[in-house]
Amino acid sequence: MKNKSYSAAINVAKSAKQVFNAVTDVTKWWSKDFEGNSEKLNDEFIINHPGKHYSKQKLIEVIPYKKMVWLVTESKLTWIESNKEEWTNTKMIFEISGNENKTVLHFTHEGLSPEKECYAMCEKGWDIVIKDWLFHFISVGTPSAKMAEAAEIRNRHFEDTTKTLKKDFHKTITVNAAAEEAMKKISQVNAWWKKDFSGSAEKLDDAFTVPFGAPSFVEFVVSEFSPGKKIAWKVTDCYLPWFKDKKEWNNTEVVFQLSQNNGKTKIDFTHMGLTPEVECYDVCEKGWNGHINTLEKFINEGKGLSE
Predict the structure, then answer these.
(1) Residues 6+ apart with CB under 8 A from 301
(2) Please, what are the averages of pLDDT over each run of 10 residues along the chain (307 residues)?
(3) What is the DSSP string of 59-126?
(4) For residue 133, which of 29, 76, 156, 264 is within the disulfide window of CB 3.0 to 4.6 Å?
(5) How wide is the angle at C-alpha 168 spanned by C-alphas 167 and 173, nearest 5°?
(6) Which of 137, 115, 103 is CA-nearest to residue 10?
């Protein structure tokens, strides 16, 4: 399930022809920041939100009233830290089925899957665009009144997320191991973070607990696991009695992104949500620096926590 591309379906009381024609009128349901044509095979168009989003689409398949496929030939998502061209070579697929009175439109952004850095934000964006704006335009025949408002919300969300990404605790190490081997070592939490760790962190949906002396603890679930590329642990519960907000880590996420080159692996560690504004930042920053240094030694030398 985790590796599947984003998809959404809407049901409308309109004919397939009406639905198809609505999809081609992109400025009425996606963005007014539009340049080009989007009606027939080989048409190309650009969606450009300056400083945030740029994508160029080409119509590579058009079956009137049944199917349309857009190939993203160029993209730049400036709010992404790593690969700002994550949309490039992905496809947006519109499949239409039904009768004169009821039509189902199934949309898939092929290649936009959960391991992508942009997925969480793009999922929210497409939910608005397809399920709200496009649904309204097809059903009513006019752009949704929420379109401009939602665009403003989206822009603010981009700005807030960009700021957060810059502030989240981050540390990079390079280890003398292949990415797959480094991931195995990361999953051995008791060897580099806490010996009395309990549970499992080896695969998707595994759950584990890191105690810090009763009654303090942090509980995690492995929310992403892309072999050789990425591990993410989401905090599902915690109790940190030293701070005013004893649940300060709740819903934050610990992320390891790996990239291999010439037998070595770079590990970008980020604690998403651990920003200088939170009370625990100074203490946690020192803690993570020490733990990640121990992880580096464990991967490179096989020596983790001292006995």
Answers:
(1) none
(2) 82 95 96 92 92 92 97 91 91 92 95 93 93 95 82 61 66 93 95 94 95 93 93 95 92 94 91 90 93 95 78
(3) EEEEETTTEEEEEEEEEEETT-SS-TTTTTT-EEEEEEEE-SS-EEEEEEEET--TTSTTHHHHHHHH
(4) 29
(5) 115
(6) 103
